[in-house]
Amino acid sequence: MKINAVLFDWAGTTVDYGSRSPVQVFIEIFHRLEIEITEAEARGPMGQAKREHIASVMSLPRVSKLWQEKFGKSPTSSDVDQLYADFLPLQLSVLSQGSDVIPGVPSVVKELRNRSLKIGSTTGYTRALMEAVIPPARQQGYEPDVIVCSDEVSAGRPMPWLNFRACEALGVFPPSSVLVVDDTPIGIQAARNAGMWAVGVTMTGNGLGLSQKDAESLSEDELNKRLSLIEQEFLASGAHFVIRSAADLIPVLDRLNNQMQQKEI
Asked: What is the homologous superfamily of the domain 5-19+100-264 according to CATH?
């Protein structure tokens, strides 16, 4: 038994260092209604499909109270639909600025291919949004074999369907031969729900939420402190391993394969 495929998330894991692009848009669509949400509130449900993400933010007690004060009623499903309709074109307009491939990812994918592993990916973005992300990522050397989007399954994370659909498209089985790499606890939960190995990414993703420049400007002590807290959250969500970046994946893969072979013996 060994790992036969790796499924990568997109924003915060393989592109968009700090997962900055979707956060800006979540904050903006509420701001346009004169409801100010914090970055922490915008980031909380990250990893979910975007409509469900908006619904989760709207259900927060503080945000729901602001909505009640502004509109004289609690937010409804129709309100979620309207915000989601506002979200899509705005997100599309900023994606060109948030599609830079995270350093080291292309070389890791190249090594995985050299080892004959299949490369899949899943995302909370819709297919229409991904059409703006795929070309620049390809130009920068990152192109997975399979991309499964949130609007192509019946429910997004933490349900396992994105991962199952990716494995079906890759022709990979069983789930225990698949490694999932994600920068959100919800993504880790989806991997575990699918019966797959889960690796959390701390530094490049949603947890730290900083651009590469800002992350690298932190003192070593401050960075380690923040990453330690993020790591604990990943482990509590069921991550088998935690790394700073997807660029650090190969040693984890080697370690996992060794563990699996020892169990066979």
From this structure: HAD superfamily/HAD-like (3.40.50.1000)
| Residue 219 three-state SS | coil
pLDDT greater than 70 at residue 264:
no
pLDDT digits (tens, 9 = 90+) for 126-149: 999 999 999 999 999 999 999 999
Q: CA-CA distance, 67 to 213, in Å (whole number)?
A: 35
Residue 257's pLDDT is: 95
Q: Where are the domains of the chain?
A: 5-19+100-264, 20-97
pLDDT at 265 over 80: no
Q: Which two tokens stand for residue 145?
A: 């074999």
112 vs 120: CA distance, rounded Å: 11
The chain-wide mean pLDDT, for the chain, equals 95
First to last CA, the chain: 11
- Cα angle 25, 228, 180 (rounded to 5 degrees) comes to 65
Rounded CA separation 9/256 (Å): 19
Q: How big is the CA angle at 182 (ends 26 and 11), to the nearest 5 degrees? A: 40
CATH topology for 20-97 is: DNA polymerase; domain 1 (1.10.150)
| 8 A C-beta contact, residue 130 and residue 162 | no
Catalytic residues: 9, 50
Element (H, E) at 118: strand 118-122
The helix or strand, by DSSP H or E, that contains position 84, with its residue range, turns out to be: helix 77-94
Instruction: Give the list of residues 6+ apart from residue 209 with CB closer than 8 angstroms, or none.
Output: 18, 19, 20, 23, 39, 43
